[in-house]
Task: structure prediction
Amino acid sequence: MAREIKGEGQAHEPVLLDEVVHWLRPEAGGTFVDCTLGLGGHAEALLAASDATCVIGIDRDSEALTLAKQRLARFDLRFRAANANFSEVGTVLAQMGEFYVRGMLADLGVSSLQFDKGERGFSFTVDAPLDMRMDPSDGETAADLVDRLPEAELADLIFEYGEERGARRIARAIVNARRKHPISTTGELATLVIRALNVPGRWRIHPATRTFQALRIAVNGELQALQSFIPAALSALEPNGRLAVISFHSLEDRIVKRSFQLESGRCLCHVQTHGPASTRVTDLHEPKRPNDLICSRCGARKRVEVLTRRPVRASHEEIARNPRSRSALLRVCERL
Result:
């Protein structure tokens, strides 16, 4: 994920910035929540759109939060911040006395600050401690997972979260290597993956990319947090309020798409192809009012309208200027 960074030797701009401002409509004023604040690039644009706009910024990374506060200090009381996981948005708003807001944004994945600082362990471009925690003070590191998980569980994790076809070979190589000594750095793990996949040489995409993605997702509980976040966010939106979510890979986007479909009243039971037709839900009905349950099996209920039939992507100009925006997918829905 790319966000603008000042003072790091290179400027990184927030992805899909114009599109986010367009869909969230901050020029009309109101309170907005940037649920993954990062360095505050999106929040800054929302605040600059109108003197009547306020922003609450949430981030689990205390270092990013400190820098964002400095950047947004000029907006004074129109900006407030909280150190929390974005899935805890409901709790954060209640603590601040805000129960309904005009709009929310979640820009998923790794921030530029985390990715570009080699010592955080997210990248294989620098040999650094194998950490990958978005909150460096909480939970297991990637090195802990690599050292602890049995081979079968490690292979399943790399296959499920990294969509890596060579997951079993990689897991076997990791287990064999850790018998001699713990795998503690990004360089060690990247080298192991290259050898396990037997792909020496130069590549368009580094062979360890999917493995690193899988471990990062597992370490930070990213997909579980996303599944919890969307219903919590929608519950905190006022009528006609909007939720915008930017994802960066198919696992995230699949959750966002499915959640938006269910929340727009689309029953997804028919999508399942296993089992006889008689096992599918039969208690469908037209909702009499917003929030009425439509399907008791899949949980479909009509409380939003999906505004983006297909995900919004970065323009060719933005991709040329900011290559990290290439994989960004923006989906937006509106509360009824």
